[in-house]
């Protein structure tokens, strides 16, 4: 299991093997090539939104010029007794969830 630092959550975010496999299978454009972008997104996001689909999930976004010619990496984190990644993906658009924090 990997753990990533997340100052916004004031702690570590877990990525277990099952979720990493899910991301690699469902979003092969992200893993394994851009694994470091998951860590960077959690450590220094451009924006954090509440997930419109999952009430207890947060979506962290960060823009990367080097990802497919310029795209966001989105990391979806469930927060309860612990913080863990449910999925991550590359996108050109931000979700419609409530903005909780934005880089100024």
Supply database-style keywords.
five-stranded antiparallel sheet, two-stranded antiparallel sheet, Nuclear Transport Factor 2, Chain: A, 18% helix, globular, 104 residues
Strand content: 35-45%
Q: How far apart are the first and last residues' alpha carbons, in Å?
A: 33 Å
Mean pLDDT, as a whole number? 96
Strand order of the largest sheet: 6-5-4-3-7
Share of helix, binned:
10-25%
Count of alpha/pi helices: 2
Q: How many β strands by DSSP?
A: 7
> How many domain modules?
1
SSE string, helix = H, strand = E? EEHHEEEEE
CATH class placement: Alpha Beta
Reported by name, the CATH topology is: Nuclear Transport Factor 2, Chain: A
Structural class: alpha+beta
Shape from CA axes?
A: globular
Low-confidence stretches are none
Rg of Cα set: 12 Å
Explain briefly what this protein structure is.
The protein has helices at 17-26, 35-43, and strands spanning 2-6, 11-15, 47-50, 57-64, 71-79, 83-91, 99-102.
Topology:
Elements: E1 2-6, E2 11-15, H1 17-26, H2 35-43, E3 47-50, E4 57-64, E5 71-79, E6 83-91, E7 99-102
Antiparallel strand pairs: 1-2, 3-4, 3-7, 4-5, 5-6
Give a written overview of the molecule.
There is one protein chain. By secondary structure, the protein is an alpha+beta fold. It has a single domain (2-92), classed as Nuclear Transport Factor 2, Chain: A. It has 2 helices and 7 strands; from the N terminus they run ββααβββββ. The chain has helices at residues 17-26, 35-43, and strands at residues 2-6, 11-15, 47-50, 57-64, 71-79, 83-91, 99-102. The strands form 2 sheets. Strands 6-5-4-3-7 form a 5-stranded antiparallel beta sheet. Strand 4 (57-64) and strand 5 (71-79) form a beta hairpin.
């Amino acid at each position: 299991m990997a753990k990533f630092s997340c100052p916004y959550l004031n702690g570590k975010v877990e990525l277990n093997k099952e979720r990493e496999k899910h991301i690699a299978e469902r979003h092969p454009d992200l893993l394994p090539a851009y694994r470091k972008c998951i860590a960077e997104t959690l450590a220094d996001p451009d924006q954090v939104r509440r997930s419109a689909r999952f009430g207890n999930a947060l979506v962290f976004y960060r823009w990367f010029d080097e990802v497919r010619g310029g795209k966001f990496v989105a990391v979806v984190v469930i927060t309860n007794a612990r913080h863990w990644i449910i999925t991550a993906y590359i996108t050109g658009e931000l979700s419609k969830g409530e903005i909780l924090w934005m880089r100024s």
